[in-house]
Specification:
alpha+beta; Immunoglobulin-like; elongated
Length: 231
């Protein structure tokens, strides 16, 4: 029998110690750092995208300010005197063209207006016979004849294009002479660009004979050479 004053046996198992949960704080800290990094990356991406968009808008605005666009001039525009290197001169009315055939040369010119905000620098031209109605593909660049000198038309201003055939034995001379003398409508394609040599464009003009002996001009089509067109 156990005495009431006897003591209970003492357990010799070591007491369990509570280890601080340090690993949880490390995890929380890592997750917070990762979240902050993601937020910063998203903000950086949005900022970069916005900056790229702003730069693109600025670039498009600059190009638009440099871009020329040629059309036929108005019929009430003043007459222009057009000179050639061989001392041939023509009086060029507004909204019209001139086509003169001689034994030595064929002289052609058109009164033009630049309706855009950039300087137009004329570079080449091409004769198209007969006149083509309706949609057409852009003419090949290798078919254009280089101008002997650059012609400039200021923004919003009046100007002209002029050139000539000078080899009576050439097939294009014979074709042009027959077309003009028979008063058959034809077209002139002009290649031009901005003052930096870019944003090249081809504009097609129709020339139709008028009763008074003049040739009336009309703008037929525009093609963009260095970028996708709007149509």
């Amino acid at each position: 029998m156990t005495s009431a004053n006897s003591t209970a046996p003492v357990s010799h198992r070591p007491a369990t110690r509570k280890i601080p949960r340090v690993a949880d704080w490390v995890t929380i800290s890592s997750l917070a750092t990762a979240g902050g990094t993601m937020v910063l990356a998203a903000a950086t991406f949005a900022s970069t995208r916005s900056a790229n968009r702003a730069a693109r808008v600025a670039e498009l605005s600059l190009l638009a300010n440099l871009r020329p666009l040629l059309v036929t001039s108005r019929h009430d525009d003043p007459v222009q005197k057009v000179p050639w290197a061989d001392d041939h001169w023509d009086r060029l009315p507004g909204g019209a063209g001139v086509a003169v055939v001689t034994a030595e040369a064929i002289y052609m010119s058109m009164s033009l207006r630049n309706v855009a905000s950039g300087i137009a620098v004329l570079d080449g031209w091409r004769l198209q016979v007969p006149l083509v109605a309706g949609p057409a593909d852009m003419p090949p660049l290798d078919e254009f004849r280089r101008l002997t000198r650059d012609l400039y038309i200021a923004p919003g201003d009046l100007g002209y294009w002029h050139s000539a055939f000078r080899d009576p034995t050439a097939s294009e001379f014979v074709q042009a002479a027959e077309t003009i003398q028979s008063r058959t409508p034809f077209m002139i394609d002009l290649l031009y660009g901005d003052e930096e040599g870019g944003q090249r464009m081809i504009t097609r003009f129709a020339m139709r004979p008028h009763d008074d002996g003049a040739w009336l001009t009309a703008t037929a089509r525009h093609w963009y050479v260095d970028r996708v067109g709007p149509r």
